Amino acid sequence: MANLFRQLTNMLPAPLRNRYFLALALFFAYMIFFDRHDLLTQIQLQRMVNKLQDDRTYYEEKIEEEKREKQDMDVNQERFARERYFMQRADEDVYIIVDEEEE
Question: Is the pTM of this model over 0.70?
Fold first, then answer.
Protein backbone atom coordinates (compact mmCIF):
# COMPACT_ATOMS: atom_id res chain seq x y z
CA MET A 1 0.00 0.00 0.00
CA ALA A 2 2.79 2.42 0.90
CA ASN A 3 4.59 1.42 -2.27
CA LEU A 4 1.47 2.27 -4.35
CA PHE A 5 1.17 5.66 -2.65
CA ARG A 6 4.86 6.33 -3.31
CA GLN A 7 4.42 5.46 -7.00
CA LEU A 8 1.42 7.82 -7.32
CA THR A 9 3.25 10.68 -5.65
CA ASN A 10 6.28 10.15 -7.89
CA MET A 11 4.03 10.58 -10.93
CA LEU A 12 3.11 14.12 -9.83
CA PRO A 13 5.24 17.08 -10.94
CA ALA A 14 7.80 18.24 -8.37
CA PRO A 15 5.96 21.42 -7.23
CA LEU A 16 2.81 19.44 -6.44
CA ARG A 17 4.81 17.11 -4.19
CA ASN A 18 6.15 19.98 -2.13
CA ARG A 19 4.21 20.16 1.15
CA TYR A 20 4.65 23.92 1.47
CA PHE A 21 3.19 24.42 -1.98
CA LEU A 22 0.27 22.15 -1.10
CA ALA A 23 -0.34 24.00 2.17
CA LEU A 24 -0.26 27.34 0.36
CA ALA A 25 -2.60 26.10 -2.38
CA LEU A 26 -5.07 24.78 0.20
CA PHE A 27 -4.90 28.05 2.11
CA PHE A 28 -5.64 30.11 -1.03
CA ALA A 29 -8.46 27.78 -2.06
CA TYR A 30 -10.00 28.15 1.39
CA MET A 31 -9.64 31.95 1.33
CA ILE A 32 -11.05 32.31 -2.18
CA PHE A 33 -13.99 29.92 -2.00
CA PHE A 34 -14.88 28.92 1.55
CA ASP A 35 -13.99 31.77 3.89
CA ARG A 36 -16.63 34.11 5.28
CA HIS A 37 -15.12 36.94 3.23
CA ASP A 38 -14.61 34.97 0.03
CA LEU A 39 -13.95 36.47 -3.38
CA LEU A 40 -17.56 36.42 -4.62
CA THR A 41 -18.79 38.16 -1.47
CA GLN A 42 -16.13 40.85 -1.87
CA ILE A 43 -17.15 41.46 -5.50
CA GLN A 44 -20.82 41.78 -4.54
CA LEU A 45 -19.99 44.14 -1.69
CA GLN A 46 -17.88 46.32 -3.98
CA ARG A 47 -20.72 46.54 -6.52
CA MET A 48 -23.09 47.55 -3.73
CA VAL A 49 -20.66 50.22 -2.51
CA ASN A 50 -20.34 51.62 -6.05
CA LYS A 51 -24.12 51.73 -6.46
CA LEU A 52 -24.56 53.46 -3.11
CA GLN A 53 -21.93 56.05 -4.01
CA ASP A 54 -23.70 56.73 -7.30
CA ASP A 55 -26.99 57.09 -5.44
CA ARG A 56 -25.36 59.44 -2.96
CA THR A 57 -24.05 61.77 -5.68
CA TYR A 58 -27.47 61.70 -7.40
CA TYR A 59 -29.29 62.66 -4.21
CA GLU A 60 -26.74 65.34 -3.33
CA GLU A 61 -27.34 66.92 -6.74
CA LYS A 62 -31.11 66.73 -6.21
CA ILE A 63 -30.75 68.36 -2.78
CA GLU A 64 -28.70 71.22 -4.25
CA GLU A 65 -31.27 71.67 -7.01
CA GLU A 66 -34.12 71.79 -4.50
CA LYS A 67 -32.21 74.26 -2.31
CA ARG A 68 -31.77 76.59 -5.30
CA GLU A 69 -35.45 76.22 -6.18
CA LYS A 70 -36.49 76.96 -2.58
CA GLN A 71 -34.27 80.03 -2.47
CA ASP A 72 -35.74 81.22 -5.77
CA MET A 73 -39.24 80.56 -4.47
CA ASP A 74 -38.58 82.55 -1.28
CA VAL A 75 -37.42 85.53 -3.33
CA ASN A 76 -40.11 85.38 -6.04
CA GLN A 77 -43.17 83.80 -4.42
CA GLU A 78 -45.67 85.43 -6.75
CA ARG A 79 -43.82 84.39 -9.92
CA PHE A 80 -43.41 80.86 -8.54
CA ALA A 81 -47.13 80.55 -7.80
CA ARG A 82 -48.11 81.89 -11.22
CA GLU A 83 -45.72 79.60 -13.14
CA ARG A 84 -46.11 76.44 -11.11
CA TYR A 85 -49.77 76.49 -10.10
CA PHE A 86 -51.18 78.78 -12.85
CA MET A 87 -52.60 81.27 -10.34
CA GLN A 88 -54.06 84.49 -11.59
CA ARG A 89 -55.56 87.70 -10.39
CA ALA A 90 -59.28 88.41 -10.79
CA ASP A 91 -58.84 90.64 -13.85
CA GLU A 92 -56.28 88.48 -15.69
CA ASP A 93 -56.41 85.74 -18.28
CA VAL A 94 -53.77 83.04 -18.16
CA TYR A 95 -52.56 81.34 -21.32
CA ILE A 96 -50.53 78.15 -20.93
CA ILE A 97 -47.97 77.60 -23.65
CA VAL A 98 -46.46 74.13 -23.63
CA ASP A 99 -43.09 73.68 -25.31
CA GLU A 100 -43.09 70.39 -27.25
CA GLU A 101 -39.38 69.83 -26.63
CA GLU A 102 -39.90 69.63 -22.84
CA GLU A 103 -42.38 66.76 -23.02
Answer: no
